[in-house]
Amino acid sequence: MRQAKNFSGQFFFFLAVLLALCPPAVQAAADPLPDPATAPALKTVFASHFLIGGAITPNTGNDPDQLALLRKHYNSVTAENIMKPEKMSIMEDMYSYGAADRMVEFAMKNEMKVRGHTLVWHQQTPNWFFEDDDGREVSAAILQGRLEKYVHDVVTHFKGKIYAWDVVNEVIDENESNGFRRSRWYKILGSDFIDIAFKAARAADPELKLFINDYSTEQSKKRAFLYSLVKQLKSKGVPVDGVGHQMHVSAWYPQPEEIAKTLRMFEELGVENHITELDVSLYNDPGSCFSNSNSCLRYASEAAIPAADLQRQARQYQDIFEVFLRFKSVTSVTFWGISDLNTWLTSWPVNRPNLPLLFDKSFQPKAAFWSVVDTAKAKK
Ligand code: GLA
User: Fold this and answer.
1) What is the model's pTM?
2) Which residues contact 160 (CB under 8 A, 6 or more apart)?
3) Which protein residues touch ligand 1 with a CB less than 6 Å away?
4) Active site (annotated) includes residue 277
5) Are 116 and 53 in contact (CB under 8 A)?
């Protein structure tokens, strides 16, 4: 009896260890995925909730397979790079709209909306804004004039074709005592550059939806600064219509409830929420990875990525879509890419394999795709 008790004790101990190592959802990894031919169109699945967007390059539509994927699932596009200031205007008063115009035309032809990204940023922005001909820093008055003209010209050029713009991108730095990133914009104009940009955009196109866009908005310190900024802007009458949450997240973090907190706070403030750059990295190495690339995890190859990681990613996608669906204010969800074939996460923060999106490199739906679809079905 005593022996039997010991035996059953050991048995349950091993069972517990086994279950801890292989939680049930991981075992589901072995489940075959549904037939890809039965995959519903994401844009239809989410039609009564939000637009489904993808960041694209000028080449995306040239590849018939990517074109088919885009047409089937997405009803909104964002330019991954070509609408950023360094691409729009390399010199003062000189604009290069060609590639962006072709993308807008492509989107209109394929019945997709266009989210503009981005008018004001501290990166990918030419020096001419901030310097005179001799390379000396310009005065606040000159920079204000240049900013107003740039925003006016670009917004006017795309008037009626782009329905929403990220007016400012990444202006918060939660490590600064007042929460403002010390960009060249901030150093010369203080936080007024934000007000100036929004007002110029509204004046150029009163119909346009104007967004403030940032990353890690689910982190409490960042969220608090962003919230107080948007609240203040609204109380001053600065026309902010929505907050863009980049949502470059991981299969391991953040907690979906932190995302919910953020979306709720902005919804209650009366602004729209757009998810603007969604991808779910397979790696769990925030912080130290960025300051010391040797500390970054790397799988030796794609083949070395454990199936359990893709299952973890599918669960994270499922959980965060469940959160998005709770909020009426979430009116657009854009992925930063349309398939794993093209993603910035294979070269940032270091070169390494990563598969962060819903479709694999052959454009077939992954476990993450099906989990997102199931979330929508469960909501109905
Ligand atoms: C930020 C920017 C995007 C893009 C990504 C990286 O999130 O907002 O425009 O540059 O980084 O690809």
Assistant:
1) 0.92
2) 205, 207
3) 117, 169, 215, 246, 277, 344
4) yes
5) no
Ligand 1 centroid to Cα of residue 72, in Å, is 25
A 10 A CB-CB count for 303 gives 7
Atom of ligand 1 nearest to the CA of 336: 12
Per annotation, catalytic residue among 80, 170, 218, 322: 170
First vs last C-alpha separation in the chain: 53
Rounded to an integer, what distance in angstroms lies between the CA atom of residue 335 and that of residue 241? 21
The answer to whether the beta carbons of residues 79 and 97 sit under 8 Å apart is no
User: Which atom number of ligand 1 is nearest to the Cα of residue 170?
Assistant: 8
Confidence at 291, pLDDT banded by 50, 70, 90: confident
Q: Kindly tell me if the per-residue pLDDT of 323 is higher than 90.
A: yes
> What is the Cα–Cα distance from 191 to 230, expressed in whole angstroms?
12
CA 299-304-308 angle, 5° bins? 100
**Beta pairing class for 113-120 and 76-79:** parallel
